[in-house]
Amino acid sequence: MEAQTNKAFRRISHETLNEQVYQEIRRVIMAGLLQPGSVVTIRGLAAQLGTSTMPVRDALRRLLAERILVMDGPRRYRLRVLSRGEFEEILCLRLSLEGELTELATLCAAQQDIETLNQIQRRFESSLKSGDNFLEANQDFHFALYALAQRPITLSLVRSLWMQVGPLLNHYRMQQGGELAVEHHRAVLAALKKRNAPAARAAIAADLNDAARVILDELPAGADDPLQ
To answer: For 212-221, what is each residue's pLDDT tens digit?
Structure first.
C-alpha cells in the first residue's frame, strides 16, 4: 500500500525543478514525516508535488544511490529500515560531527544568532504543547546552530546522516520524545550565551543520546527488517 503522504509534501513551482523536488522529498524524510518502510511511487509523488514524473524520477534515483530508498517493484520505492548496528554507527558519527559543529558554533555565535535560535526553540516548544509535529522545528534548531560553524562540508555530511535516520524519527515523535529535547536545547542556548563550547557540545550529545535510546528499543537486528 502506498504511504498516505498527501499532507506531508508541499507543491513545487517550476523554477530549478529537479533540485526543488529532491530538496522537498529530502525535507520530508529528514523531518520524519514518512515512516520506515513507507512505499512511494513516481506518479504518486508527482501528483502530490504538482510536477511531471521526470524530476521525481531523478530525485528518487539520487535517494536510491544514497541508500535512503530501496526498490520495491517497478517504479516503486521503499524507505530503508536501518538495523540496530547501522543506527549505532550513524549515532557515533553524529556525536562526533555534530559535537564539533556545536563547539565551533558556540565560538562564532553573535547575539542575533542566539536570538534566532531562541525563536526556533519557542516554536519547537509551542509545537510540543499543541500536539503538532515538532520534528521540523527540532531540525531547524539543530541546523541553524550547526550553520553558525561555517563548515559546509561537515554540514553536508550531517544532513546525509540525518536523512538516513529521518524515518525513524516518526517513531520518536509518536513516543513524545521531543519532551526530552527541551531541556537539552535550553542548555545549548545557555552555553552559547556564555561561550562555553564544551557545555554546548555536552548538551547536544545528551540530546542525541536520549533520542537514540527511544529509537533503539524498537529497531530490528537486521537491516530492512520490519519494525515491531
So the answer is: 988 887 776 6
Fold equal for 17-79 and 84-216 = no
Name which of 184, 104, 182 is nearest 147 in CA terms. 104
Fold entry, domain 17-79: Arc Repressor Mutant, subunit A (1.10.10)
Handedness of CA 169, 88, 117, 125 (dihedral sign): positive
Orientation of helix 17-30 relative to helix 53-65, angle to 10°:
50
Q: What whole-number distance in Å separates Cα of residue 120 and Cα of residue 201?
A: 19
What's the topology of domain 84-216?
Four Helix Bundle (Hemerythrin (Met), subunit A) (1.20.120)
Which residues are CB-neighbours of 204 under 8 A, at least 6 positions away?
98, 99, 102, 142, 145, 184, 188
Spans of all domains in the chain:
17-79, 84-216
Distance (Å) of CA 219 to CA 67, 178, 201, 213, 215: 18, 19, 26, 10, 7
Instruction: Please write the tens of the pLDDT for every residue from 57-80.
Output: 999 999 999 889 999 888 899 998
What's the pLDDT tens digit per position in 134-175? 888 999 999 999 999 999 999 999 999 998 988 887 766 655
